[in-house]
Automatic annotation (TrEMBL):
This is Pantothenate synthetase. It comes from uncultured Actinomycetospora sp. Keywords: ATP-binding, Cytoplasm, Ligase, Nucleotide-binding, Pantothenate biosynthesis. It is an enzyme of class 6 (ligase). The lineage of its organism: Bacteria, Bacillati, Actinomycetota, Actinomycetes, Pseudonocardiales. The keyword Disulfide bond does not apply. Signal peptide: none annotated.
């Protein structure tokens, strides 16, 4: 089926048609309006890809867009919404970086067709009282440090899935626990969305890209590189077993006193207990000054042959 270059502004009886042009970026703030667009696109034979973000877009987000745009016969929706429900009192909701015009420019550069940028009241209207509970994993790792965080994440992602009705949704692996919980929610609730994890994009010195990197001073930025260095050390110690992986990573972190470690954990790739042999995930969280950073890397635990 041919790609629709646009959707007509009105139907045959004069009702407003959803706004969309294949050759231009269209911004929607109303959930119902966006849903009409994606429904019409699917009816015309298009697939719909979703890239959920909180804005302050960087090269990691650009990679998500490129993965989405690389799917043949698909239209890409990027959501830009700083979700208040995933911030605890005293966290950085009010000062979280916001750069909407720059975000739109990046979307245009990458050929994104649709941006969904609702206001808080559009997503959580008066009387909104429902949330998605993440289960036990939601209280572990990041959840132990940020109580309620993952209930807020899963709730907004479930809403975005209901609004955009995507075929595929793309998330970065930097937030690996978030990615794991979203995949579990989709599986447990039979949501008809394929969730794709995209490898972490890093700076040339290894630091994982994050919107919160903008908070770092030069000194804190220099200290933060120890996170990726520790993960690399652990990754290369896979032949030494789980204890060896953790020891190798911890030795790097112990040498950087400017970081305050929250946790360093080795788990299986579903974030259960680490296996003795097989695929695993090494995760770290620490503070550089007042900025909290997370990172992770895949580790292959193998039996050493002498």
């Amino acid at each position: 089926m041919t790609r629709p270059s646009s959707l007509r502004t009105h139907d045959l009886v004069g009702r407003a048609r959803p706004r969309y042009r294949a050759d231009a970026l269209t911004v929607h703030r109303d959930p119902t309006a966006l849903r009409r667009v994606t429904r019409a696109l699917r009816g015309a034979g298009r697939r719909v890809n979703l890239v959920p973000t909180m804005g302050a877009l960087h090269e990691g987000h650009r990679e998500l867009m490129r993965r989405a745009r690389g799917v043949p016969g698909a239209t890409t929706v990027v959501s830009i919404f700083v979700n208040p429900r995933q911030f605890a009192p005293g966290e950085d909701f009010d000062r979280y970086p916001r750069a909407f015009e720059g975000d739109l420019e990046m979307c245009r550069e990458e050929g994104v067709e649709l941006v969904f940028a609702p206001e808080v009241e559009d997503v959580y209207p008066e009387g909104f009282a429902t949330s998605v509970h993440p289960g036990p994993l939601g209280d572990d790792l990041e959840g132990a440090v940020r109580p309620g965080h993952f209930a807020g994440v899963l709730t907004v992602v479930a809403k975005l899935f209901a609004i955009a009705v995507p075929d595929v949704a793309f998330f970065g692996e930097k937030d690996y626990q978030q990615l794991t919980l979203i995949k579990r929610m989709v599986r447990d609730l039979d949501i008809d969305v394929h969730v794709v994890g995209v490898p972490t994009v890093r700076e040339s010195d290894g630091l994982a890209l994050s919107s919160r990197n903008a908070y770092l001073s030069d000194d804190e930025r220099a200290a933060a590189v120890a996170l990726s260095a520790a993960l690399a050390a652990g990754q290369y110690a896979g032949e030494q077993g789980p204890a060896g992986v953790l020891d190798a990573a911890r030795s790097v972190l112990d040498a950087e006193p400017r970081l305050q470690l929250d946790y360093l954990e080795l788990r299986d790739d579903e974030l259960g207990p680490a296996p003795e042999i097989g695929p695993a995930r090494l995760l770290v969280a620490a503070r550089a000054g007042k900025t909290r950073l997370i990172d992770n890397v895949a580790v292959s635990l193998v039996r050493r042959v002498d």
